[in-house]
UniProtKB/TrEMBL annotation:
Keywords: Secreted, Signal. SMART domains: C1Q (SM00110). One of its GO terms (cellular component) is extracellular region. It comes from the Eukaryota. SUPFAM superfamilies: TNF-like. Residues 37-167 form the C1q domain. It comes from Pomacea canaliculata. The keyword Signal applies. It is found in: Secreted. Residues 1-18 form the signal peptide. InterPro entries: C1q_dom (IPR001073), Cerebellin_Synaptic_Org (IPR050822), Tumour_necrosis_fac-like_dom (IPR008983). This is C1q domain-containing protein. The keyword Nucleotide-binding does not apply.
């Protein structure tokens, strides 16, 4: 039985010529790189350790507490998300004013203002901003505040983002 199978196998293998094998190898390589792209996970969400906190005029808003940081691409010490891969991403940020305030946290990509936001509030209130964006590996994304502000931090204000598709 085993010998019959072996003989069959030898006959089959001898019928597969080099170009078929080359073709299969190319397909396997292409599939491997597709699987590699599809298995890339990047997902972060950061807030603040304190309930009441503040940010400074013209500075990066440093969301100092990462609650989720799959792929480790967000730094809670600098407030900067660095895209680990080329791909399409969604970036989201949410501000929650402490009383009246003029929270206009803007989104920066590589030190260029990419989306301006403004919410002049008369009492505690939250505003969300969303920016879908294609990033190259190494692109730096952060939120900066043109004003000095006091605001609600922990689980009130967040900065988040995720990779939709790497390509
Ligand atoms: C803040 O939100 C996180 C995640 O949803 C939760 O685990 C945590 O308990 C919350 N913290 C407080 C103080 O509510
Ligand atoms: C989109 C959104 O929620 N905008 C709000 C931002 O905050 C101001 C001030 O409270 C609200 O008036 C907006 O509706």
């Amino acid at each position: 039985m085993a010998i019959t199978l072996l003989v069959l196998l030898v006959i089959m293998v001898s019928k597969v010529d080099a170009s078929d094998i080359g073709d299969l190898q190319r397909k396997v390589t292409a599939l491997k790189s597709q699987i590699d792209l599809l298995s890339r996970r990047v997902f972060f969400r950061a807030t603040f350790k304190d309930f009441k906190t503040s940010c400074e005029f013209g500075k990066v808003v440093i969301f100092d507490t990462a609650q989720t940081n799959i792929g480790n691409a967000y730094s809670s010490t600098t407030g900067v998300f660095t895209a680990p891969y080329r791909g399409d991403y969604v970036i989201v940020w949410r501000s929650f004013s402490l009383g009246a305030g003029d929270i206009n946290w803007d989104l920066y990509i590589n030190d260029q203002m990419a989306l301006r936001a403004r919410s002049l509030t008369s009492g505690d209130s939250s505003n969300e901003s969303v920016m879908p964006v294609t990033l190259q590996a190494g692109d730096r994304v952060y939120v900066a505040s043109p004003n000095s502000l006091n605001f609600w931090g922990l689980n009130h204000s967040i900065f988040a983002g995720w990779l939709v598709t790497a390509f």
